[in-house]
Amino acid sequence: MGTWLLPEDLADILPAEARRIEELRRTLLDLYRSYGYELVMPPLVEYLDSLLSGAGSDLNLRTFKLVDQMSGRTLGVRADMTPQVTRIDAHLLNRAGVTRLCYCGSVLHTRAAGFTATREPLQIGAELYGHTGLEADVEILRLALASVQAAGLHGARVDLGHAGLVRAILDADPAAAGATETLCDLMSAKDEPGLAPWFAALRPDTTEALRRLLRLYGDASVLEEARAVLPALPGVTSALDTLQALARALPAEAVSLDLADARDYHYHTGAVFALYVDGWPDTVVRGGRYDDVGRAFGRARPATGFSLDLRVLAGLLAPATSVPAIQAPWGEQPDLMQAIAELREAGNIVVQSLPGREPDQQEYAFDRELVLGERGWQVVVRR
Known about the structure:
4-stranded mixed sheet; 13 helices; BirA Bifunctional Protein, domain 2; 9-stranded mixed sheet; alpha+beta
């Protein structure tokens, strides 16, 4: 193996892609700022027990571990920034009212999440703390849609679900005790053969409700069907009311529902959502409500938010084109240096050619050059 080879599912980001990702980062952070979200920057590494507080076993398996030579304690390289932002809200800011926070940074996974995934996503997201009402969920959903639109992608589809729907049905059946997480995973995957052995152990009414849930997906009309065929448990009714309110707050053509979706059962507590766009087989944005995560840090604040991978989002856009630039000769004459400085201050890209060398790059297209004329240094259009 050559010393230049990188580990599997890790890759360098070359100039054109790096520029596109950085432009997206600035665009989205400015968008979140316009909504009142404050930027935070958690550390890349922290103590493992803090990093995994309130998270499930899945995050633990995705987290790289190492030993801190200073303290002897186990550290983790973050695999998700949301628990860190929750820690900041609960423990450091310690505010009583609504707090809006946003963030952006690399995370590291022990294994890639899918065939198209990298082990080093560049995660960006927004979180809203301190409000239990649907208004917070609506704001987060609209901001997630605005994120995709700001990147230049249109026609995004929102897939809505509710983490409490399957749970409410299972909690009403003592035979499901201890198997909730397994059953939620099977329901989310719509793995009916895998569910069959469990159906035999559950009450008939529970089995019937779960079977019906597996087929309750589509447009907003499935909510009325669900009210007619699912048990009228308080948790079921509350979840359906929440989903109906969220669906009404979004364009009808952009919304679909999957009532069997109980992903991240151990993490999310309410409405969950995923955004899809044409040309990409996986989700582009994931989010939802997770009210209990802050309990591990001493404050169980209401919370809802979303995150996405900037590298995925950038890859869905048209290839970046070369940026217009001005080529200038090498020299240190005061008038030349002043002319270059003024051009750069005006927002132009000016590249000086080193003696005997022409710039060798794809990032810039030299459509102009700086030449010395009768009236000093002037920019002329290249032919």
